[in-house]
């Protein structure tokens, strides 16, 4: 283990909150599955179609297993993150041990059992900013089998997430090679505070943190978080209606997510604050725009490629048919809707 | 698996209701995907502030949780597809 490795506990606490936010979605999935399994109408068709009934129940059973597994992983991850944060905060030793174990588990086939790792951080007081609560000590974290998925699958997910997976080659990792380790006194507390605010108070999150103080990546995360909120709310489409001051149309969604003044720019004025970029430069938080004025124009928020072919992408979008929603879109957009080009908010850099 | 314990009670099943259950599963899968994108962006933002190989390893751990989510999402969609087929079979009265 490289003793010089530094991972700010604020960042880990930030991630812990993000994982906690994902748990309700998993709970909803479990409820939907259990409702389907218990529905008398689902069961009543058994005598009519035993083959499809068997296939349906088998699929539901497999889905229940998978959702239960991922819920267990996601729900236990905040404890792990806070354990690492506690370790770093109190002298790095425990955090270093945890990371070493994770590295071994991710690169090999042996199961990683967190229960075999130290469960309590060292008691020494720390002098850094406190973000780790004592009641979040990782007591009772269930074993996590990181070997369940093979290396290719992890690498695929890493490409989606933009995270470099360690391998046997000496190539430097993306995160270590990135020329931007942030000064701890500025960027990290801002990121952590943003996550805490957005996790606990959606309205406060929408009003916006001090964006000028954010790093580019933190700002992109904030853009996606804001767009996701509208999609979660399922706000209907209107070129004249507003929500929290912003028009509830396509450019209103982008303006809100980008933190522009309400009610927002339009598709033909968006280039006042954004510039054209290349397809391969697209990152989450950038947009695709058809700059035609009025109803002829359209824009949506790029949220990542669906796979390495870069032919489809995830997007947040306000559209007349679906309102604010999340989905996948063929690049650059569905046929028959004009010409779309990728744009980036000027404040996000080149 | 709780689904396997459900007993058959009647042949008068409502295909629309079965279809609605399938839709609920699709919605749940879409929500998992949506949450995952927000999480992946957050992970990427956090990873940019880390240094060293252990940080990359931890990134691998985090994305492996996303692989778990993808498996769950795919399973939900498969279950929804199966239920839709079930609804169609019920509607058609096929055996």
Architecture overview:
Chain A: Residues 217-345 form the NlpC/P60 domain. Chain A: GO terms for molecular function: cysteine-type peptidase activity. The complex is a heterodimer of chains A (350) and B (95). Helix content of chain A is 43%, strand content 11%. Chain A has helices spanning 9-38, 40-44, 50-89, 93-107, 151-161, 174-177, 187-200, 202-207, 216-233, 250-258, and strands spanning 242-243, 246-247, 274-276, 287-290, 298-305, 312-319, 323-330, 341-345. Chain A has two domains: 9-163, no CATH class; 216-348, endopeptidase fold (from Nostoc punctiforme) (Alpha-Beta Complex). Chain A has a six-stranded antiparallel β-sheet with strand order 3-8-4-5-6-7, with helices on one face. Chain A has a two-stranded antiparallel ribbon with strand order 1-2. The two termini of chain A are 36 Å apart. Chain B is mostly helical and 95 residues long. Chain B has a single domain (14-92), classed as Helix Hairpins, CATH 1.10.287. Helices cover 77% and strands 0% of the residues of chain B. Chain B contains two helices and no strands. Chain B has helices at 15-47, 53-92. The longest helix of chain B is centred in the C-terminal third of the chain and has 40 residues, at 53-92. The relative contact order of chain B is 0.16. Residues 1-11 of chain B have low confidence and may be disordered. Chains A and B meet through helix 1, helix 2, helix 3, helix 4 and helix 5 of A and helix 1 and helix 2 of B.
């Amino acid at each position: 283990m490289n003793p010089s490795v530094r991972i700010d506990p604020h960042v880990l606490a930030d991630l812990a909150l993000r994982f906690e936010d994902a748990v309700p979605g998993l709970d909803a999935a479990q409820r939907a599955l259990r409702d389907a399994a218990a529905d008398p109408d689902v069961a009543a068709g058994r005598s009519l179609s035993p083959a499809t009934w068997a296939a349906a129940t088998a699929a539901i059973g497999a889905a229940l297993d998978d959702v239960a597994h991922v819920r267990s992983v996601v729900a236990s991850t905040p404890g792990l993150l806070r354990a690492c944060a506690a370790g770093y905060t109190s002298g790095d030793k425990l955090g270093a041990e945890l990371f070493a174990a994770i590295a071994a588990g991710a690169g090999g086939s042996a199961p990683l059992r967190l229960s075999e790792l130290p469960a309590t951080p060292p008691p020494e007081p720390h002098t850094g900013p406190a973000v780790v609560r004592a009641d979040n000590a990782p007591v009772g974290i269930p074993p996590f089998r990181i070997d369940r998925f093979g290396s290719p699958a992890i690498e695929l997910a890493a490409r989606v997430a933009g995270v470099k997976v360690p391998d046997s080659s000496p190539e430097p990792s993306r995160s270590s090679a990135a020329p931007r380790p942030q000064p701890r006194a500025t960027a990290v507390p801002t990121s952590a505070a943003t996550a805490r605010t957005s996790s606990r108070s959606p309205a406060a999150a929408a009003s916006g943190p001090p964006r000028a103080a954010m790093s580019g990546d933190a700002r992109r995360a904030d853009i996606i978080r804001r767009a996701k909120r509208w999609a979660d709310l399922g706000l209907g489409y209107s070129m004249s209606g507003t929500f929290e001051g912003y028009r509830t149309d396509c450019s209103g969604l982008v303006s809100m997510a980008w933190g522009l003044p309400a009610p927002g720019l339009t598709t033909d004025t968006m280039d006042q604050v954004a510039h054209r970029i290349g397809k391969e430069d697209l990152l989450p938080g950038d947009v695709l725009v058809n700059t035609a004025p009025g109803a002829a124009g359209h824009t949506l928020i790029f949220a990542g490629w669906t796979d390495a072919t870069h032919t489809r992408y995830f997007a947040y979008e306000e559209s007349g048919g679906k309102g604010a929603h999340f989905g996948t879109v063929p690049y650059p957009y569905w046929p028959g809707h004009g010409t779309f080009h990728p744009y980036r908010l000027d404040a996000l850099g080149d | 698996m709780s689904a396997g314990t459900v007993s058959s009670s009647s042949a008068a099943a409502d295909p629309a209701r079965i279809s609605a259950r399938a839709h609920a599963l699709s919605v749940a899968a879409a929500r998992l995907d949506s949450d995952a994108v927000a999480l992946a962006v957050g992970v990427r933002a956090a990873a940019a502030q880390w240094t060293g190989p252990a940080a990359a390893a931890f990134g691998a751990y985090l994305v492996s949780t996303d692989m778990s989510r993808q498996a769950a999402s795919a399973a939900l969609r498969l279950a929804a597809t199966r239920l839709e087929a079930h609804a169609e079979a019920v509607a058609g009265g096929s055996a």
